[in-house]
UniProtKB/TrEMBL annotation:
UniProt lineage: Bacteria, Bacillati, Bacillota, Bacilli, Lactobacillales
Keywords carried by this UniProt record: Membrane, Transmembrane, Transmembrane helix
Parts of the chain that traverse the membrane: 21-42, 48-64, 76-95, 125-155, 176-200, 212-243
Entries under Pfam families matching the protein: YibE_F
Residue ranges the record marks as coiled coil: none
Keyword Transmembrane tagged: yes
Organism: Bombilactobacillus mellis
Protein name as catalogued: YibE/F-like family protein
Domain of life where this protein originates: Bacteria
Length: 252
């Protein structure tokens, strides 16, 4: 692992120079935040409270080092935090309905030697996991859309609101396609062995779609896709509002 980390650092420095060091520092900070989150939950802190706090910290850490433009940074940050709140509310509503928390039957062999009375809420941990798993794609999409729209404004300061909206949607469509591919490939790559297990052992469709691991993964995937679509629209709307507001102020 240390060798791969060193290779990653060298590759980032070779490609991005000083920016590579900043990106690597951001990744390291995110990793340390996740470790701290795990330790706090293990010490019986409320998973939802510490989860939402650390999710906000991870959003700041993902967005601030990625861009030097304050307008891009502000619009990406605001839109990502708004989507984060929306996803959190959806997770609170959906996860109890799925009843997929904890370990599934496929985990029995690995965990039967351990004590499961760990004193933490598995439904709340599942909510935190689903929320954090969608943050990366949402933050990436918000930065990409925000950067593209502000670049258009910089080169065409007199562009109409309608044309700017259409341009923002076009940028968003391209980023949605990229984000969907990323989420889908990650989903299939992570759960390929589980899929082979279920197929080779001739599980029925009812059993497959009631499998705790698979249901959690599907809910996380769908919420991630929904978050990417929502952040494209919210980023576009926020920048248009900001553009109109400051344009009117400048005209006065």
């Amino acid at each position: 692992m240390w060798y791969l980390t060193l290779v990653l650092f060298i590759a980032l420095v070779m490609v991005a120079g000083k920016r590579g060091v900043i990106i690597f520092s951001s990744l390291s900070g995110s990793f340390l935040l996740l470790l701290t989150l795990i330790m706090l939950i293990a010490d019986e802190f409320n998973p939802l409270i510490v989860g939402i706090i650390f999710a906000i910290l991870l959003v700041f850490l993902a967005i601030y080092p990625q861009t030097q433009n304050p307008q891009v940074r502000q619009s990406a940050l605001v839109s990502t935090l708004l989507v984060l709140i929306g996803l959190f509310l959806l997770v609170l509503l959906l996860v109890p309905c799925t009843a997929s928390q904890g370990f599934s039957l496929e985990d029995t062999e690995e965990i039967e030697q351990f004590v499961l009375s760990v004193g933490v809420s598995f439904p709340q941990i599942q909510m935190v996991v689903i929320l954090l798993s969608s943050l990366g794609a949402v933050a990436e999409a918000s930065i990409a859309v925000s950067s593209g729209i502000w670049e258009i404004i910089a080169y065409q300061p007199q562009i109409s609101v309608h044309n700017l909206w259409q341009a923002g949607l076009e940028i968003g469509r391209k980023n949605i396609a990229t984000a969907l591919n990323t989420l889908l490939f990650g989903f299939f790559g992570s759960y390929l062995t589980l899929g082979l297990w279920l197929i080779q052992l001739h599980y029925s469709l009812v059993t497959i779609f009631n499998n705790g691991i698979l249901v959690t993964a599907i809910v996380g995937l769908l919420l991630g896709i929904l978050g990417v679509i929502a952040v494209v629209l919210i980023t576009n709307c926020y920048i248009l509002w900001y553009y109109q507001h400051h344009k009117l102020a400048a005209d006065k």
